[in-house]
Design a protein that fits this description.
four-stranded mixed sheet; about 20% strand; 2 domains; DUF6088; single chain; Type IV toxin-antitoxin system AbiEi family antitoxin domain-containing protein; Arc Repressor Mutant, subunit A; alpha+beta
Length: about 200
């Protein structure tokens, strides 16, 4: 009879190198405890790598630096797909995405309607915070980022240059998405976002 170990390995090897797997992906082969033990054995024999607790992969190998671990963003995206959840970057992550900060955050914080959790990756971590439906109701990816970036900067700290950059980004958002998302933002952020709306033709 084929062991749980070989069934797990077969499934992982069929996927593209670097694909991420979770303990729950193998529960058709045995119960949680048996699957966890099998994964542990495969890690110990270097057949697979543990990326973080409960997350595994057969990693890409670089001839010079060796195993290539997925980025924190790739892990966040993998979890978003797996949980069919919405994710909105917050804080420094949102500032980074809009080019307002070059700081590399140690903790990447996302708002989500999936499970709240923290995933440790060496010294860094990815934090998924359960958010209210209103915070996740934005339909524009740029306007969603802009709202979070402005909240992070704060009403009284925003500079003219930051305002310019944010409005420039918002002008790339589809107007109907922008109009929808303005209604979800705090009043001081609405005023800024409205500046990016296309001017109506004056009659």
């Amino acid at each position: 009879m084929e062991s749980i170990d070989s069934k797990i390995l077969e499934k992982i090897k069929k996927a593209k190198r670097g694909s991420l797997f979770y303990t729950e992906d193998f529960l058709s082969f045995g119960n949680y405890k048996a699957v966890s033990k099998a994964l542990e054995r495969l890690v110990n024999t270097n057949e697979i790598s543990r990326v973080s607790r409960g997350i595994f992969a057969v990693l890409e190998k670089d001839p010079i630096i060796g195993e290539v671990y997925p980025s924190t963003e790739e892990i966040a995206e993998s979890i978003r797909k797996r949980d069919k959840a919405r994710l909105i970057p917050t804080g420094v992550l949102a500032l980074n995405a809009l080019g307002l900060s070059t700081q590399i955050p140690m903790n990447l914080v996302y708002l989500t309607d999936g499970s709240a959790r923290t995933i440790k990756l060496g010294k860094r971590s990815v934090v998924f915070k359960k958010a209210s439906p209103k915070n996740l109701a934005v339909i524009g990816s740029i306007s969603g980022l802009a709202i979070q970036a402005l909240k992070e900067i704060g009403k009284d700290n925003i500079t003219e240059q930051e305002l310019e950059i944010i409005i420039k980004h918002l002008k790339k958002e589809e107007p109907y998405r922008l109009e929808h998302d303005i209604k979800l933002a705090p009043e001081w952020i609405r005023i800024i976002m409205r500046k990016a709306l296309p001017k109506k033709n004056e009659k």
